[in-house]
Design a protein that fits this description.
alpha/beta; 2 domains; Rossmann fold; Alpha-Beta Plaits; binds ribose-5-phosphate
Amino acid sequence: MAPLPFSSPPQAILTQDELKKIAAYKAVEFVQSGMVLGLGTGSKAKHAVTRIGELLHQGKLTNIIGIPTSKMTHELASSVGIPLSDLDSHPIVDLAIDGADEVDPYMNLVKGRGGSLLREKMIEGACKKFVVIVDESKLVEHIGGSGLAMPVEIVPFCWKFTVERLRLLFDEAGCVARLRMDRESGEPFVTDNKNYIIDLYFEQDIGDLMVASDAILRLPGVVEHGMFLGMATTLIVAGGLGVRVKNK
Ligand SMILES: O=C[C@H](O)[C@H](O)[C@H](O)COP(=O)(O)O
């Protein structure tokens, strides 16, 4: 009998977390010594922050300054030895690395499902290069069309009034607006900035994103929303077939 042809070794099946780690490590390849870095928040950013800490420890990166986008990232970055600062002292950020909850084909993002969006938007808006890490499940055709939450950060003062104003704004898109609750305490979820989060859910497309963004930001009581439009410069997508990098 003729010998069987060699087959390539079976590909190891990677867990979601391993995929996230691979993508995060890829993002960290953009980091150079001497940079001021925006440090994102969430499961993917966590791997990137930890990796930067490792490279500093090994002397492969030096003279890095990190600007954390949340209290959680501040704690993690301190624990892995990244020297930290803020936008007041370092208003220009060389590079930021962060995850996202949705990404459309134009690299517009939804962020904030983990509760961090205001500090992320301030810091990532101040950076020269913004590298976003996602897995394939986060890729969407239309922002806001996934049926999942579009977070909006609002002041707690008369929050019910603001919720209704937000809902009415997108009435034609079948919007449902809900105050986010903290699962553990059963109380409203409070952001690092002591605000509340309203999650918007749409039945239909919300149309022009810039128009939607301006309309949300014009409402008194709104602090910021989770649409990050035109901000990402590089997208790293982790999937079953490996890691893809897309530049703007
Ligand atoms: O509020 C959370 C942040 O915007 C996160 O960056 C975003 O939710 C993505 O998080 P993850 O990397 O855990 O999917």
